[in-house]
Design goal:
This protein has helices at about 5-25, 65-85, 130-140, 140-145, 170-195, and strands at about 30-35, 40-50, 55-65, 95-105, 120-130, 165, 200-205, 210-215, 230-240. It is α+β, with helices and mostly antiparallel strands and about 240 residues long.
Length: about 240
Amino acid sequence: MNNSTGLTIGAVVLAVGIAAGGYLAGLGVLRARTNDRTVLVRGLSEREAKADLAIWPLRLIVADDDLARANATLERNVAQTRSFLATQGLTGTESEVTLQEFSVQDNRANGYQAGSRYVIRQTLVVRSTKIELVQSASQRVPELVKDGVVLSSGQEYGGGGPTFVFTGLSDMKPAMIAEATARAREGAEQFATDSRSTLTGIRRASQGLFEILPRDQAQGISEASQITKRIRVVTTVEYGLAN
């Protein structure tokens, strides 16, 4: 065999291998082994789900050289914030507003001479099942700021906006696992049919972690900031094959 013939045969074998690899990937087939007659397949299940809980921290901050005056301003701002939330419909049994993380900082005691001496912080946390109302209220925060309430996001709360949580994952799991497993079997059955084989049963199986992803995936968009989520799970199953 001359070199040109050998190169031609090698190219044909390579092309067949590439084509077969693409075919198996399209079926969700991860690996097929003829020596021990098994096929490894993957099944995917994806669904959309809507958040059913909103958690929204509003961190108030007041600075003044007089501690009593600073505290009075903070109390007034707390009252204004509560009133703002009430006008947005965030009251009643479906919404809870709690005060958290009160702190006073004396800048003089810490060696800082510039700026106001006292800085007081107080966080109001809204916990509500009224998802749309929380989202609407968060978009109207400039009205609160216009009334003189100063807000600070605070690093512990990320950007300071609402976090939308989906709490119903446990109810979705059984149906999604069944769907992913069924899709894995469909891929295995198709491979068995095309290879003139039959499935002999599951050799081993593994379930991937459930993922809660943003419905709209783009740079800078987080899952927590979106009301609608995309739930995803992948199962991997290895089937035996027989002639």
